[in-house]
Amino acid sequence: MFSHPYRYLFILLIAVYSYLNTLYVEVFVYYHIPLQPWEALLTFVFIVLCIWEGNRLLETKVETLQNWLKDIGKRQIHPLLILFGGSIVITTLSVSIPVVVFGHYEFDYNWQQMHMPVKLAFTLGFRINLFLNTLNAIFFFLRQQRQAQLEAERLKKISIQAQFQSLKNQVNPHFLFNNLNVLSTLVFKDPVIASEFIEELARVYRYVLQNFEKELIELSTELNFIRSYRYLLDKRFNSSLHIQINVPEQYQHHYIVPLALQMLIENAIKHNIGSRNRPLHIRIYVDENQLLVVENNLQPKLEKELSTQIGLENIAQRYQFISQQTITIQQDSESFIIRLPLLAVFD
């Protein structure tokens, strides 16, 4: 506080305010102190200036004094205590100088006559010093609180980034795990198709590696990836799986979290059955609320597959970390619907 850029204005205001108070209660008349108004005002300005500037200079040395006192006493002393203790010495010197100058040299007072002016001057000086140090303590604790909040925010951000990175790291093995299961089946059924599948898998996996570290990706890019990924699924499921994409051009420049659509398709396949007569239909479209919808007809498997519990929770938490928005899940007797926020990114 003592280093405030407008400190000289504050010094003048405090000095004038203190001077007007003494005029109002007629201190100089009551105690017969023959100071001229301009002399009294200059005295107040001098005292406040010396107390303020003395505290400011002392404040710059507090850390040095704190270390020195710690070396002597082996204990850490609070900086405010050091500052307040030093300010008492500063106040004593600040008050003594004008009292001696006016009392001893101008008015030729003896020490007995100076008794009352000294008491009044010290009362004024220590009240001003107490007021300034109280304000400084308030500023000190507010600053400490603000720094603690900033540090907490910094640690929270680091924690969130670490959690986010952990969530992203779950996508890669999840994606690879499911497609290796597909490949293991095709190897025994048809080696030729398995070879083509490997080529397409490499092409798709290249996309995963290129975009895996991104927090967001443009929807058009993700949809192109899904169209390529659909080839891998068609080779396995043939006509038992239908994936329909109907997203208007105006929405394709919005953003979603990477691999969200792929994970939702995987989720639908994992928990539902499909056949030629009863294929699994997966639709990707934008609803009237401008949310990206992934909808599938509900044909649950009688025996549930072992789940890694990554898909939906992963997507939900990544959205939460990035935008504070959440995905919505809706299920009825006929369909299972996931709605993803479409995010706008501004440069």
Automatic annotation (TrEMBL):
Residues 162-240 form the Signal transduction histidine kinase internal region domain. The keyword Secreted does not apply. It holds the Pfam family His_kinase. GO terms for molecular function: phosphorelay sensor kinase activity. GO terms for cellular component: membrane. The chain crosses the membrane at residues 9-33, 39-58, 79-101, 121-142. Keywords: Kinase, Membrane, Transferase, Transmembrane, Transmembrane helix. This is Histidine kinase. It comes from Xanthocytophaga agilis.
